[in-house]
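hiii so um. not sure if this is the right channel but i have a protein structure encoded as tokens and i wanna go backwards to a sequence. like what aa goes where. can anyone help
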């Protein structure tokens, strides 16, 4: 079974901060662009800045 993007991120984080939860959601929902786009409207901008380019395409709200 392939590992999801969110799983590897969750295993790598040692100390969780509020933005880490948003980053985890963005990675976990990678395969559901419509849900990610909806989430982006509520997420702080910092949650998207360090994501790989393929994890968060350049949408106007991000």
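sure thing!! here u go:
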């Amino acid at each position: 079974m392939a590992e999801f993007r969110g799983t590897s991120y969750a295993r790598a984080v040692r100390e969780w901060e509020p933005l880490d939860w948003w980053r985890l959601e963005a990675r976990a929902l990678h395969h559901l662009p419509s849900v990610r786009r909806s989430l982006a409207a509520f997420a702080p901008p910092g949650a998207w800045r360090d994501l790989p380019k393929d994890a968060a395409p350049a949408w106007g709200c991000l």
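oh and Residues 5-49 form one domain.
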